[in-house]
Amino acid sequence: MAQAWKCAGLRWSAEGPELRWDGGRRSPLSWGKRVSFAVAEGGVRECAGARGHACPRRVVVPGRSAGGRCEECARLDRAHSVAADRVADDPRPYRVYLAWFGPGLVKVGITAVERGSVRLLEQGAVCFSWLGSGPLMAARRTEELLRAALRVPDRIPYAEKRAVRAALPQAREERAEEIREVYARAVELGGWPESLERAPFLPVDHVRAFGLAGAPTALGDIGELVPGGAVSGELVAAAGPDLHLATPVGVVVLDTRLMRGWRLVPVSGGEPAFPVRHFEAAVDHRQDGLF
Q: Please, what is the end-to-end C-alpha distance for the chain in angstroms?
């Protein structure tokens, strides 16, 4: 019987994306690499645990859960999360950023300065620019200022990010246009924390890093992994946790967060045997009068 591997998720670095596995094994990913695996018949998905620790009760979790954690482990993970606003005394400096994921999808967020732009790669930001840097609470207040004054959200569902990737403008300048507009309005606002050092508008484009330039359009995404199911395809692009795989039926998107908790085994090529949800026509999420 083939050896089974338990996925620990997708990680990004300056070198690109890589899949990580329990036990420390890493699988660097590059365009053209074949990604093939199956879930054995009778397999179950166990809770991924929290903060690097296994779930003590090995709870079985639903296949559609992006978090892949039981309620207890999810609470523990969020309790130590800066992103969930559960930490107020982190002494590290933070940056505030504006990120763009496609037409009409702009968000504001924060990330530790020491992480560089990795957080933006992890989120699948097609284009971004820094707003400023400073202490955690100053970054938090700036984030809230933009949410309240400009109605810029701090979260965008991954389903919306995927749906608009096929509608990305070809020109780098066009991809930066919306965050340029939001940046201009943001710097005009009063109430910025004095301890936050503002940054100039310098857009960073990730289309090349994600392999999206010239990549074929995805027809849909895998909704969940199921026992007896499989997928095999050539990696043509990746953004955030998503892998775009060219299969015999077309390009499908695999959210690697759905892999966590399953024991996976190698498989030969073939049509996807996991449920695939087809995308509808791309939607422009811009609203009249938003800014």
A: 58
46 secondary structure, DSSP code: B
Beta strand segments in 80-182, E:
94-102, 105-112, 127-134
> Rounded to an integer, what distance in angstroms lies between the CA atom of residue 8 and that of residue 65?
15
Q: Does residue 157 have a pLDDT over 90?
A: yes
Question: Cβ neighbours of residue 121 under 8 Å, at least 6 residues apart?
Answer: 12, 17, 206, 209, 240
Three-state secondary-structure class, residue 274: coil
CB contact at 8 A, 256 and 19? yes
Would the CA dihedral through 172, 173, 178, 179 be positive or negative?
A: positive
Q: What is the pTM of this model?
A: 0.89
User: Encoding tokens for residue 61?
Assistant: 């979790």
pLDDT digits 0-9 by tens, 92-148 = 999 999 999 999 999 999 999 999 999 999 999 999 999 999 999 999 999 999 999
β-partners of residue 130 are: 97
Take residue 81 and report the two structure tokens written for it: 């999360």
Strand-pair partners of 6: 263
